[in-house]
Amino acid sequence: MLEVIFYRDGDDRLSGICARGHADFAEHGQDIVCAAVSAVLQAMRLGLEGYAGLELEALQQPGELRLDWTESDRDLESLRAIVTTAELAVKQIARRFPDHVRLKRRREARRVGGKASGRVTDLTDRRRHDV
Questions:
Q1: CATH 3.30.70.1490 is the classification of domain 2-122
Q2: Which of 27, 43, 48, 121 is most buried, with most CB under 10 Å away?
Q3: Domain residue ranges of the chain, discontinuous segments joined by +
Q4: Distance between CA atoms of 115 and 52, rounded to whole angstroms?
């Protein structure tokens, strides 16, 4: 299962994301579900760094991507637009492939390399929809 968590701080501002695991829809290299989510998240990272000019705290390794941004950047319209678009895209993929992708929202700031705690809300609507 590929799990993607979008973190929000106490003011409901986007504060980071974490994706980990594998979709296991098909064999490695043939997994279109994993490739779709990866493409969305990589495009989000490129948009945040290249378009919005943000300096991200990032951890990226096989099967895991964590991104955090500074508290001062959380009110930027460009950040909200880019990350919310990625969240909407991942939500559609999770709806279409609920056995392979889980989308969650966690209310708290997430620090790269740190442990997160708090309430997690599963955002995946289990109805099937086309992506």
A1: yes
A2: 48
A3: 2-122
A4: 27
